[in-house]
């Protein structure tokens, strides 16, 4: 929390006067006021009038603006912190590990964590070379910043340092062109940056270290000053500087050849490196007591803090310019400054900014003046303020001290209006109008009742405005009297009134003003309304010579010429007012030609210079109240008032113009990780490059000064945008989710004059994410090339595969066509064969089959004969069965049918039926089936059956076999038929090599070949025969038909 405060000043002791007694509820003096008191008031008034003529208006001075920062709201800051400034000029507070920096109005904690060796920083010094150094207990060194933007100690103490440095508290730091001096009670360590080495000086009882120019001195207790010859490594005493056994407690350089020393016994002396002399201004201004702080100001003055007395500022010429003696300044422990007009004060419970160089001073309750729409006039050379129904007179204080207002005699029923010119003052209240007499009494003037406003026009005309009547009073013949018939009231005039040389103007509220003038002995009232159209906008009045300016809403302004009493154009004045960054509502012109133009939160001045006007928008900006009113009293005595505030302009200081401000970039932080990306004091020749994951940043700016009463407002624009955007109430600019690319950021301080403020520029670049980097695009290009090549290759392969498929399809279709042609040819052949078969069937049916049938009939008739014995009958039955089987086989062969033994059965069962038909009973035939039977093509079954029939018949008829074993073996991919007999055997090679061969064996080989199988024949004479046929389970389709492949 930050607040403006207006400190108390010296306790006022009236010169020969006692404070006036309180007035009663109506504002009248107490009934028992002694005559002696009234006489004292008149004497004091006379004395003051004479003094004011001698010393002028400079004797009236209010309190400087201050801003207080309580310690508990800064951070973990105990009492007695040390003040310093960082590389940007920001105020820094240091105390036992705490390091807080004031960035405009925000305290930034930059305290670091104690290092592994337990370093707790107690003092930080910013050296001129740009580096910062620290002092601590038993340690000293450089200060750097961590990635989080916090302090980090870099110790410079070597391992072989003297033992006394291990426990010394280096709480005082001093710098010159040759290095840094770390001082404590035990002694001094000099760090030589050129050689990067330390030199040690054990002193003992060291009270202070200071320098005169580049020479360094130390002050030990009960010993004279010693010059520290750090090059030679010796301490050289300075004669006649023992200060009566005391020691130096404070030191501040006055210039390059002199330093002001504060001795512990309360003396202030000037030391030039050889001798010490008394500081002459101490005795002149009575600055005695317990000196608690001494500080040389940037503008050449000196600030002296005295315990239980206050803070005193002395100019370079020895003038006591300010004395702040309120209780908060009785316990000052530190002072600091780095710019003119701004002094930092450390009190018991706060750090306070004192704007001692401000052209504005403040009056209020602390100076005895309760403020409520004050009316300021000058009467008999004395400033009088009418406020809250009473009159208060300004009483000048001692040199440097603020003036006070003390109540003065007031007419019965109070003072609600006042108007004055030179020695004539009128006061109005509910009882009427009164003349203030020089003896402190008030003479009533016959006039209107319930006076609300008194407006002095010129030296001898005053308008008295009551609730129901308005009168004109003229000064003539040494008295005031009405000079024209009264008119009705003008409404409810506000507290703001104005006067020209010809008329009085009143602000009557929303969209309404009035003008009073005296013409031909009569009061003329003109009321102007609807000046802002139908909007309910307050219309303000300003006076510039004979021109009345009526200002309403922004952009709406009218000009009234007092000489012609008509509205007119004022282009030159309009252009001048348009130069202000604020909308001007009221204006007054002083005797020097300066135009005081009030806006919502302050005042802009236009001062004639070189045929033009110089505008100042900063000196009187940031008042404590809004919509101020300018009061220009005689001798250019300017006051600014509002509803609850009253300020006085000190012309000597008002002539100083603040320089242009350019903000500084002090920090760039990653908003996501809070990692510091750049310290602004590091110069960069190229834009800062940030990774894409760092595209949300927080940039902190500093205005570069603390001389403002109101915190600066920043404006920014990115990449040259047409319009400037307001940063807000702080100095932290957050940019989130930035796209990749280069950015040009401009930041300036708003409202700094008629010329555009010089912006600070910062260039940075957000690198693209890897998928959008040039390398990625190259990879994308290569990938695309590879993809295209792959696509082409894939298409080519696909085309080749399609071509191969088409070729295969053509081949397949060709084979199908060939097969179809073969089938067609086969059908043709089959047709021919069928025709031939029909012919043969007819022939066989008429010849062979009839013969076989006849044979069967004959055998049946023979079997019926009783004379046929059992053996013969058995033989005949076999013959009959064979003939019958032959007849059926011939019938099936003719019609190309499979054997009737294979009908609706598998191969093993067919073999069993076959053996039953062909076995005459002389051999024992066994059938064995192994494996899992699978369905076989009919052709395979037919040929295997014929092979089994042929081999079995041969074994019975030719080999005289007694045992025949037939085995069918179903395997995974083949079916094997094996026939083994124990007959006489033979030589297969001899049989097959004979001319013509053996029809039965050749037939077996032909049938095996038709099945794409293999036949093995193993036989020797006298050892039986083994015939094995192996046939694939899935043979290739047979081209020949079953009719062609079968042989009988």
TrEMBL record:
Pfam families: HATPase_c, HisKA_3. Gene3D superfamilies: 1.20.5.1930, Histidine kinase-like ATPase, C-terminal domain, Immunoglobulins. Residues 944-1035 form the Histidine kinase domain. The chain crosses the membrane at residues 777-794. Keywords: Coiled coil, Kinase, Membrane, Transferase, Transmembrane, Transmembrane helix, Two-component regulatory system. One of its GO terms (cellular component) is membrane. One of its GO terms (molecular function) is phosphorelay sensor kinase activity. Residues 807-837 form a coiled coil. This is Histidine kinase. It comes from Opitutus terrae (strain DSM 11246 / JCM 15787 / PB90-1).
């Amino acid at each position: 929390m930050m607040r403006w405060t207006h400190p108390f000043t010296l306790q006022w002791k009236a010169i020969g006067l006692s404070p006036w007694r309180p007035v009663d509820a109506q504002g009248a003096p107490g009934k028992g006021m002694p005559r002696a008191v009234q006489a004292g008031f008149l004497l004091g008034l006379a004395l003051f009038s004479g003094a004011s003529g001698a010393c002028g208006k400079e004797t009236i001075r209010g309190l400087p603006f201050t801003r207080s920062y309580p310690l508990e709201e800064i951070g973990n800051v105990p009492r007695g912190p040390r003040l310093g400034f960082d590389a940007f000029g920001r105020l820094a507070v240091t105390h036992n590990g705490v390091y807080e920096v004031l960035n405009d109005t925000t305290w930034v904690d930059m305290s670091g964590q104690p290092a592994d060796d337990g370093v707790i920083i107690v003092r930080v010094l910013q050296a001129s070379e740009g580096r910062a150094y620290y002092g601590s207990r038993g340690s000293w060194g450089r200060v750097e910043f961590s990635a989080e933007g916090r302090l980090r100690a870099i110790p410079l103490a070597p391992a072989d340092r003297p033992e006394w440095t291990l426990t010394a508290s280096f709480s005082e730091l001093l710098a010159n062109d040759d290095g840094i001096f770390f001082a404590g009670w035990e002694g001094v360590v000099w760090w030589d940056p050129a050689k990067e080495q330390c030199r040690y000086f054990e002193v003992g009882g060291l009270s202070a270290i200071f320098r005169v120019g580049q020479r360094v001195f130390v002050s030990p207790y009960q010993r004279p000053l010693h010059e520290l010859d750090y090059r030679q490594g010796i301490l050289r005493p300075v004669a006649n500087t023992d200060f009566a056994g005391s020691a130096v407690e404070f030191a501040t350089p006055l210039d390059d050849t002199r330093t002001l020393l504060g001795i512990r016994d309360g003396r202030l002396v000037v030391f030039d490196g050889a001798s010490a002399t008394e500081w002459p201004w101490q005795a002149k201004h009575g600055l005695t007591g317990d000196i608690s702080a001494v500080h040389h100001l940037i503008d050449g003055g000196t600030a002296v803090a005295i315990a239980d007395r206050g803070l005193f500022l002395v100019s370079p010429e020895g003038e006591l310019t300010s004395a702040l003696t309120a209780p908060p300044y009785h316990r000052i422990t530190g002072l600091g400054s780095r710019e003119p007009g701004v002094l930092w004060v450390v009190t018991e419970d706060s750090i306070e900014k004192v704007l001692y160089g401000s052209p504005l001073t403040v009056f209020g309750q602390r100076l005895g003046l309760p403020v409520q729409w004050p009316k300021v006039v000058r009467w008999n050379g004395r400033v009088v303020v009418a406020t809250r129904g009473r009159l208060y007179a300004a009483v000048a204080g001692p040199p440097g001290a603020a003036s006070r207002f003390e109540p003065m005699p007031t007419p019965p029923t109070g003072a609600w209006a006042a108007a004055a010119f030179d020695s004539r003052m009128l006061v109005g209240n509910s009882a009427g109008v009164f003349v203030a007499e020089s003896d402190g009494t008030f003479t009533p003037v016959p006039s209107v009742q319930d006076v609300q406003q008194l407006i002095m026009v010129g030296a001898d005309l005053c308008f008295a405005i009551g609730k129901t009547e308005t009168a004109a009073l003229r000064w003539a013949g040494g008295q005031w009297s009405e000079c024209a018939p009264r008119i009705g009231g003008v409404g409810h005039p506000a507290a703001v009134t104005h006067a020209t040389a010809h008329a009085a103007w009143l602000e009557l509220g929303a969209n309404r003003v009035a003008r009073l003038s005296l013409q031909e002995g009569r009061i003329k009232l003109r009321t102007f309304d609807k000046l802002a159209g139908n909007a309910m906008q307050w219309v303000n009045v300003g006076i510039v010579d004979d021109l009345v300016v009526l200002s309403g809403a922004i952009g709406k302004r009218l000009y009234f010429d007092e000489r012609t009493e008509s509205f007119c154009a004022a282009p030159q004045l309009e252009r001048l007012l348009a130069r202000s960054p604020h909308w001007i509502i009221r204006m007054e012109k002083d005797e020097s030609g300066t135009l005081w133009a009030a806006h919502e939160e302050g005042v802009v001045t236009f001062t004639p210079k070189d045929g033009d006007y110089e505008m100042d928008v900063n000196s009187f900006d940031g008042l404590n109240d809004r919509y101020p009113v300018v009061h220009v009293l005689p001798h250019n005595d300017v006051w600014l008032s509002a509803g609850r505030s009253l300020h006085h302009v000190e012309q000597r200081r008002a002539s100083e113009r603040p320089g242009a401000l350019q903000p500084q970039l002090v920090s760039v932080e990653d908003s996501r990780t809070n990692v510091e990306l750049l310290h602004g004091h590091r110069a960069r020749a190229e834009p800062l490059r940030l990774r894409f994951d760092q595209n949300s940043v927080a940039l902190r700016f500093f205005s570069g000064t603390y001389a403002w009463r109101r915190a600066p407002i920043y404006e920014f624009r990115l990449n040259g945008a047409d319009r400037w955007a307001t940063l807000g109430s702080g100095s932290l600019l957050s940019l989130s989710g930035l796209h990749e690319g280069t950015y040009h950021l401009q930041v300036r301080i708003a409202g700094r004059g008629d010329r555009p403020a010089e912006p600070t520029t910062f260039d940075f670049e957000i690198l693209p994410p890897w998928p959008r980097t040039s390398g990625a695009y190259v990879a994308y290009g290569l990938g695309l090339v590879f993809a295209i090549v792959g696509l082409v290759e894939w298409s080519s392969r696909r085309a080749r595969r399609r071509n191969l498929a088409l070729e295969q399809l053509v081949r397949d279709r060709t084979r199908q066509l060939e097969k179809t042609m073969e089938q067609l040819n086969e059908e043709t052949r089959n047709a021919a064969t069928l025709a031939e078969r029909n012919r043969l069937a007819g022939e066989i049916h008429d010849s062979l089959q009839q013969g076989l049938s006849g044979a069967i009939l004959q055998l049946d008739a023979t079997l019926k004969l009783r004379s046929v014995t059992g053996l013969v009958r058995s033989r005949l039955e076999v013959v009959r069965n064979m003939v019958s089987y032959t007849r059926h086989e011939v019938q099936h062969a003719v019609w190309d049918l499979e054997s009737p033994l294979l009908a609706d059965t598998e191969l093993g069962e067919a073999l069993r039926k076959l053996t039953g038909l062909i076995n005459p009973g002389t051999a024992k035939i066994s059938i064995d089936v192994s494996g899992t039977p699978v369905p076989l093509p009919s052709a395979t079954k037919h040929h295997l059956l014929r092979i089994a029939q042929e081999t079995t018949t041969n074994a019975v008829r030719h080999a005289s076999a007694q045992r025949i074993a037939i085995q069918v073996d179903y395997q995974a991919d083949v079916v094997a038929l094996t026939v083994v007999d124990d007959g006489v055997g033979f030589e297969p090679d001899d049989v097959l090599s004979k001319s013509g061969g053996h029809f039965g064996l050749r037939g077996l080989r032909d049938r095996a070949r038709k099945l794409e199988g293999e036949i093995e024949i193993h036989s020797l004479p006298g050892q039986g025969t083994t015939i094995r046929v192996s046939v694939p389970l899935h043979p290739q389709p047979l081209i020949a038909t079953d009719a062609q492949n079968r042989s009988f």
